[in-house]
Amino acid sequence: MASTASPNFFARLRMAKPKTTCSKNPDALRIGILGAANIAPTALINPAKSMKSIIVVSVAARDQEKAKAYAKTHDIPNTHPSYDAIINDPEIDCIYNPLPNGLHFEWTRKALEAGKHVLLEKPATSNAAQTKILFDLAKAKNRVLLEAFHYRFHPASIFFRQLLQDHIAEGHVLQKVESIMSWPSFFPKDDIRFNFALAGGIMMDCGCYTLNSIRYFSGLEVESVQEARPKIVSPEIDGRMDAVVNLSGSHSPGAIGKLTASLTNPYFSIDTWRNILPSFTAETDTKIFTFGVFVMPTAYHYITVKDKATGKVENLPKVYAEGYSTYRYQLEAFVSAVKGANTDSIPGWVSAEDSFKNMTAVDDIYRSAGLKIRE
Question: Most Cβ neighbours (<10 Å): which of 66, 102, 296, 310?
C-alpha cells in the first residue's frame, strides 16, 4: 500500500505510542517482561496496547522497587520479585527477554524449560553454540522462540525484499550488497554495549542488524569473511566494524556483502551526519536497489531503483500499509506463531536456522578481526 493511502507521519507516530489500551480477547496471551528495560515500551508495551490478542501482565526486576515504579509508569498490573518467579508463574504464557546480551542464554533457557514462549531481543545469544542450544530446546519443548529482528516484519521490508528477489528471479546477477548503520558516540564508554562480560561490542549491537539485512534481503548466506577491520574502544570490544563477506546460495555466485556498523563516529564531522540514516544497497548486473532507513521505516523510508545503463533513478512509493510500527508487526507475527500459525507462511519470520547462521557469521567476523567471540 502506498503512502498516499496510509496514515500520515504524525498519525504513525501517535499509533506507535497509544495513550490507551484496547479491550483484550478472553484468550489473549499473557506476557511478562524480564527487567525494567528501556527498549520494552517501544518493542512490546506500546504495541501490545493496541492489540486485542496479547496483554503485558507483569515485569520482574532484581530491584523490586524499580519494578514497581516501572510497572506504574507503564500501566503494567503486576510485578514479580525475581526473574525466576515470573518465568515459573503458571498464569504467564510468554516471556519477553530484553536483558543485556550476556544474560540472553541463561534466562531464555530457563523460560523455555518452564514451558514459556519467548520473544528474545537480538542478538539471540553471545555466540552461535549458545544459539543452537536454545533453538534445539525450543523445538524439543514445542515452544516459539523468536529473535527480534523487528525491521523484517514491516511491509516496506517485505516489499523491498520481494522487489529484489523478483529481479534476481528474472535472471539478473547480484554483485554486491552493502548495509550501513553508522552513528555518533551516543553512549558512554561504560555502557553495557561496550562490556565484554555482558557480550558487548558493535557486532552485538547494530552490527548484527547489518549482517542480518545482508542475508535477509539478498537471500544468500555468508560463506566466508574476506576482511574485518574493527575500531577497538576497550579490550576485545569493537566500537566500529567494517567487514566484507563472501556470499553464496542458489543464485549470484561471487556476490559480496559489505557492512559498516559504528557507534564511535565524531559528532563534528560532515560525513557523520551525511550518513546518519541506516541504508541498504543491492547492486546487480543492471540495477542498483536502495532501501533507506531500512531498520526503522515506520516514521520514514525511501526505496529507489537506479538503471546502471541510463543513470535513471526511479523513486518507488513508500510502503506504510496500516501505519503500525515495526515492533507492532513483529508482535503480531509472534502472537500468530504462538497460536499455531505455520511460521513458514509468516513474512519476515526469523527461523532457528536463520538465527544460528546470523550468530555464526558474527562469530566468524570476530575471529577474522582478531577478537574473541563473546562468551
Answer: 102
Confidence band (pLDDT; 50, 70, 90) for 29? Answer: very high
Domain that includes residue 47, residue range = 3-149
Same domain, 130 and 161: no
Lowest-pLDDT range, 144-158, 177-191, 276-290, 341-355?
A: 177-191
- Please tell me which residue in 49, 116, 122, 176 is annotated as part of the active site: 122
Percent of the residues in the chain that have a pLDDT greater than 90, as a whole number:
93
Q: Tell me, yes or no, whether 126 and 50 share the same domain.
A: yes
312 is catalytic: no
R_g (Cα) of the chain, nearest Å? 20
Instruction: Write out the H or E segment, with its range, that includes residue 175.
Output: strand 174-184
Query: How would you classify the pairing of strands 221-234 and 174-184?
Result: unpaired
Q: DSSP secondary structure string, 38-86?
A: SSHIIIIIHHHHT-TTEEEEEEE-SSHHHHHHHHHHTT--EEESSHHHH
Residue-wise pLDDT tens digits, 227-262: 999 999 999 999 999 999 999 999 999 999 999 999
C-alpha cell at 167: 529481479
On whether residue 339 sits in a domain, the answer given is no
pLDDT, tens digit (0-9, with 9 covering 90-100), for 30-48: 999 999 999 999 999 999 9
Domains identified in the chain, total number? 2
Question: CATH no. for residue 145?
Answer: 3.40.50.720
How many alpha carbons lie under 13 Å from residue 335 in its C-beta half-sphere?
21
| Per-residue model confidence as pLDDT tens digits over 259-295 | 999 999 888 787 778 788 999 999 999 999 999 999 9
Instruction: Please give the grid coordinates belonging to residue 206.
Output: 547494530
Whether the Cβ atoms of residue 283 and residue 175 lie closer than 8 Å to each other: yes
